[in-house]
Amino acid sequence: MIVAVASGKGGTGKTTIATGLAVVAASRLREAGGEAATVTLLDCDVEEPNAHLYLDPRLDSREVVGVPTPIVDEVKCDLCRRCAEVCVYHALAVLGRGVMVFPELCHGCGSCTLNCPKGAISEKMRPTGVIESGTAGAVRFAMGVLNVGEAMAVPVIRQLKSRFAGHDPGSLVILDAPPGTSCPVVETLRESDYVLMVTEPTPFGLHDLTMAVDVARDALGLPVGVVINRDGVGDTKVDEYCQREGIPILMRIPLDRRIAEAGSVGLPLPVALPEYREPFLDLFRLLSREVAP
């Protein structure tokens, strides 16, 4: 089961939910004697990952990842311009007597290499980030970290998921998504079994929730449920929207100063406040039921 924890805006509590769910689910599976079942948390917010601050994992692996970028052999190249014609990202340009490559624009799709009639283009990986992995108690953990100055988070997210987000029977993979509704979010949500939207009952929360639901449910065709964080601070319009759209509200977390204090010292919510263990267990059960075939 792959569950993506997302929202239309930052600061709603995605990481609070993702880490709390991971800790409780791993404990529950271990108590049930499911040695073969695992819980994996992937921090896909590669521009500013922070789940490790809650879980304090032991990171024992580090891998450089990147984008395959074209290298042009000037001896073989006859300046036919085919590479520039097929590159939808304008990462190549034929100028005068040579081909200019703009590495920062290249998405690594390989079209130029495939379409070059002279076989004059090869590829070399351009590092754009790293993937770090390890364990945090019973939770397997991995995160992507985009290099400073890089603009494209999607390749790092794609490679993070390809290594750790397998559909193993009985196991749970939690994807802590970036905020918003842009390309990194879409890449994170792809191939998930369920999307857990975290929102708050405010006009901003509702506005961004509707955009995120449009992406996850309407564009990607994924089932969606909602967690309302800071419940009680605003109005009832989020509830009305969910009821109107047939979106289940799976959990409510009240505005509680103690939760903020727990986050400030890097403790998962069910660890800092044990009374939240049962609500997170209920959330895990509801997700298992929602995803069940």
Question: What attributes characterize this protein structure?
Answer:
11 helices, Alpha-Beta Plaits, 293 residues, Rossmann fold, two-stranded antiparallel sheet, nine-stranded mixed beta sheet, alpha/beta
* CATH fold annotation of the largest domain: Rossmann fold
Number of helices: 11
Proper CATH architecture of the largest domain: 3-Layer(aba) Sandwich
Helicity level, as a percent range? 25-40%
Q: Strand pairing plus helix content: what structural class?
A: alpha/beta
Task: Give an account of the 3D structure.
The chain has 293 residues and is of the alpha/beta class. It folds into 2 domains: 2-65 and 128-291, P-loop containing nucleotide triphosphate hydrolases (Rossmann fold); 74-119, Alpha-Beta Plaits, CATH 3.30.70. Helix content is 35%, strand content 28%. It contains 11 helices and 11 strands. The chain has helices spanning 14-31, 51-55, 82-86, 111-115, 154-164, 183-189, 203-219, 237-245, 257-264, 269-272, 277-291; strands at residues 2-6, 39-43, 58-72, 92-95, 98-101, 121-136, 139-146, 172-176, 194-199, 224-231, 249-254. A 9-stranded mixed sheet has the order 3-6-7-2-8-1-9-10-11, sandwiched between helices. A two-stranded antiparallel sheet has the order 4-5. Helix 1 (14-31) packs across helix 11 (277-291) and helix 5 runs parallel beside helix 6 (183-189). The longest helix has 18 residues, at 14-31. The radius of gyration is 22 Å and the shape is elongated.
